[in-house]
Amino acid sequence: MICNLTIGSTVIPLAGYTGRTSETRGLQVSTETQSQTVSYIGTAEARQFWRPGSLVTASFTSYLTFSSATEAEFFVGTLPTDLIDQDGATAVLGTRTALGTAQVETATAAGTSTGAGNLAVTITSAILDGSPLTINVPIASGEDAGDWAATVRDALASNTAIAKRFIVTGPGTAIRLTARVAAANDATLNIALANGSPSPGITPAATSTNTTAGVADTVTPMLTLYDAIAAVGTDVQGASVVLNATVTGRTTNPA
Question: Which fold, 2-99+217-250?
Answer without folding.
Answer: Elongation Factor Tu (Ef-tu); domain 3 (2.40.30)
